[in-house]
Amino acid sequence: MAGLFVTDAAAPAQVAPARPNHRRRVGPLGVRARSDRRVRVVSAMSLWAALLLVTYWWDADGGIRDLAGWASTLTSTGRLTGLWSAQLLLAQVLLMARLPVLENAYGRDRLTRIHRIVGFTSFTLMVAHIVLIIGGYASAQWSAVLGTSWDLLTDYGGVLLAAAGTICLIMVVVTSLRAARRRLRYESWHLLHLYAYLGVGLALPHQLWTGQEFLQSRGATVYWWTIWAATAAAVLVWRIGLPVARSLSHGLRVTSVVPEAPGVVSVYLTGRWLARLPLEAGQFLNVRFLSGAGWTRANPYSISAAPDGHSIRITAKVVGDGSRRLLGLRPGTRLIFEGPYGRLGDRARDRHRVLLMGAGVGITPLRALAEGLDYRPGEAVVLQRFSDRPLFAAEFDVLRRERGLQVIFLPGRRTSARSVLGPAAGNSELAALRHWVPDLAEREVFLCGPDPWTNAAVGLCRAAGVPEDRIHTERFGW
Predict the structure, then answer these.
(1) CB neighbours of 9 closer than 8 A, spacing ≥ 6?
(2) Domain boundaries in the chain?
(3) Looking at residue 237, what is its pLDDT?
(4) I need a surface site. Which of 184, 191, 261, 330 has the fewest CB within 10 A?
């Protein structure tokens, strides 16, 4: 049971030496992590408070008192499920609106998981709302359901638009199922997912024109109009306005394209005033390269070197249409970018000792962290899983010699779906991990790789005694 420590790695055609560290120091270690925890608590409490508030307004308008006969019970319950669905639908949009306070506090991985849970819950409540309202208006008679549905579509303002919005949301939900995602390209899935905004927009007139709970009191009316307007403003500012402003301001362009390994390529970027861009090691950018077909689609690319204020390096594996386009980029190609995003790095850290563990091209953001984090010799350990050859071997060797980084290469293909460390671990991966990193339970752990590997790695670290709040991930999944 032994790892391969970096000793004398052969240098690839172009090697970036360890560069001067340009970390933005924002206070003592752990200050931002504690602040983010408070944001997570406040945001969760705010959502629950909003759900309780709309429930109170529902009851104040006779919600519980209407639970008498079948028809009134169905209608009243339908009103409540509609209110909950609307509230969660707005929360779902805000989760993906790229609000800096949420991006920083949760990170993209956790936001995406919460977004999915909130989205499916909101959709389920929306379906219940439709079924219950139709049943209530039909006086709980199955024979009257079709006629009542037609009357609602034609006689009530905004309901026809809401029906069209529901179809859009159904399409988004169906394509979000795991089985559907496996059959779709990322670019196609992302395009279809944008129909969620259309679905939300089409539902708005129905809720604000005819929804009883939206109109029952001045307070309720002001509340709903305010949160709808605030949500729309968040999307316009953070998803559209800020990316456009930053892209125009910094004027990023390609300087060179460098193969790192078979099927893996790095793209070097430069631009104006890069020191002002709040980019940290471990983060990623959503990029649209303005050349050739597919320039309208954004793809996420991890930063593979610590920002130095002069250039940016992104590295990706060529697996889809977006990453395949990297091979044909020419120097001078301009781009539009969103970000930086991600919490895989110094922001989440409140321990000096860290473990950076990546699989395949998942080592990319960890390579940047190995350069960008502040640590003493022996405080940072890198475990790199790979099948054919390690990435950035010579660069890790420079960091080992200059900064005391400990690097362990773990070659070989995965022996099973639950394999994390590969053949080098022998019969017990947990024993091997504890052997290589004896003080693992006291470290901050950063993981990056494909979803199945990352899930297995999280489980292995938990088994080794690492608390869940000190395990930070970035997954190459969607």
Answers:
(1) 390, 393, 394, 396, 397
(2) 4-16+346-475, 31-246, 250-341
(3) 95
(4) 330
Q: What is the DSSP string of 365-394?
A: HHHHHHHHS---TTSEEEEEEESS--SSHH
Taking the whole predicted model, whether its pTM rises above 0.85 is answered as no
Structural contact between residues 356 and 329, judged by C-beta atoms closer than 8 angstroms? no
Structure tokens at 446: 């950063």
439, burial (CB in 10 Å: exposed 0-12, middle 13-18, buried 19+): exposed
Tell me the pLDDT tens digit for each residue of 233-253.
999 999 999 999 999 999 999
DSSP 18: P
Q: What is the CATH number of domain 4-16+346-475?
A: 3.40.50.80
CA proximity to 16, closest of 361, 224, 339, 256: 256
User: Could you tell me if 437 and 407 are in contact, meaning their C-beta atoms sit under 8 angstroms apart?
Assistant: no
The CATH class, in words, for 250-341 is mainly beta
162, HSE (Cβ side, Cα atoms, 13 Å) = 23
CB 447 within 8 A of CB 454: yes
CB 174 within 8 A of CB 180: yes
- Are residues 43 and 108 in contact, defined by beta-carbon separation less than 8 angstroms? no
